[in-house]
Design goal:
By secondary structure, the protein is an alpha+beta fold. Helix content is 21%, strand content 31%. The protein has 6 helices and 17 strands. The protein has helices at residues 4-10, 16-24, 115-122, 142-150, 189-196, 227-234, and strands spanning 2-3, 28-30, 33-34, 41-42, 48-50, 53-54, 63-68, 96-97, 106-112, 130-137, 152-154, 157-159, 163-170, 175-182, 201-209, 212-213, 222-224. Strands 7, 8, 9, 10, 13, 14, 15, 16 and 17 form a 9-stranded mixed beta sheet that branches. β8 (96-97) and β9 (106-112) form a beta hairpin. The structure holds uracil. Residues 101-102, 105, 188-191, 204 line the site of uracil (URA).
Length: 239
């Protein structure tokens, strides 16, 4: 069972925020009855109509690995009409990204119409590792490196990288490249970590997601996952 607004958003029909508005306005029916409660739980067998449109159940599951370019938004639609990651994939299915990369972040992002896999990969306890390359202003001091090793408190919750290493230090240009692996999914987490250390992130790229890498994909290119990869992603399910 899933929350109604999430199911609507995952169908690709609209964003979660708009789905919530539609529910509150009495525009959503579940099994013939108007539902205005935001927390309502629904299952795959429920018959849902949103603003007169029936939510189609997607039968064929699709899985894409995209090398997200800068200047593309990680959602299904955008109020400001900016290009979305979904616009870059040639499919008629209602796919959506698993998690987010910021507008200016590049790199590996998965898209699918498989809600079950999305939930598995998004559950913090399933600890899916993501590796980022962050170009930061300045050079980390040994004190800052130790702080990062111990974990950084972000909004009252500690974030401890699984591992990190300094790939490059440019003393002349006063910047460095840090490879950092985290299991966290909180929005802007890498930027927040370095902000705490008083080093601004100049560029950010996600290089890996679980065992998946970008391979030869150029910016804006994508490929479908194969069945082996999908099964392996399902095996992250502990919770
Ligand atoms: N952390 C960030 O700060 N931004 C991203 O896009 C992903 C992780």
């Amino acid at each position: 069972m899933e929350r109604l607004q999430k199911v609507i958003a995952q169908s690709g029909l609209t964003s979660r925020r708009k789905a919530e508005e539609l529910i509150k306005k009495g525009k959503v029916e579940v099994n013939g009855k108007i539902v205005v409660e935001l927390g309502t739980k629904v299952s795959g067998n429920d018959y849902i109509i949103v603003d007169g449109v029936e939510l189609k159940k997607n039968d064929r599951k699709e899985y894409y690995l995209l090398n997200k370019p800068r200047g593309v938004i990680s959602s299904v639609s955008d109020d400001k009409n900016r290009k979305t990651v979904v616009d870059l994939i040639n499919t008629d299915s209602r796919i959506y990204p698993i998690g987010r990369l910021d507008y200016d972040t590049t790199g590996l992002i998965l898209l699918t119409n498989d809600g079950e896999l999305t939930n598995i990969l998004s559950h913090p306890k399933n600890e899916v590792e993501k590796t980022y390359i962050a170009k930061i202003e300045g050079i980390l001091s040994s004190e800052e490196i130790n702080k990062l090793k111990r974990g950084i408190s972000i909004e009252g919750r500690k974030c401890k990288p699984v591992r990190f290493k300094i790939r490059k230090k440019d003393k002349e240009k006063n910047n460095s490249m840090i490879e950092i692996t985290i299991v966290e999914g909180r929005n802007h987490i890498v930027k927040k970590i370095f902000k705490e250390l008083k080093h601004e992130v100049i560029k950010l790229k996600r290089e890996t997601y679980a065992f998946l890498t970008l391979g030869n994909l150029k910016s804006g290119e994508y490929r479908e996952l194969n069945i082996k990869e999908v099964k392996k992603l399902y095996s992250f399910k502990n919770y």
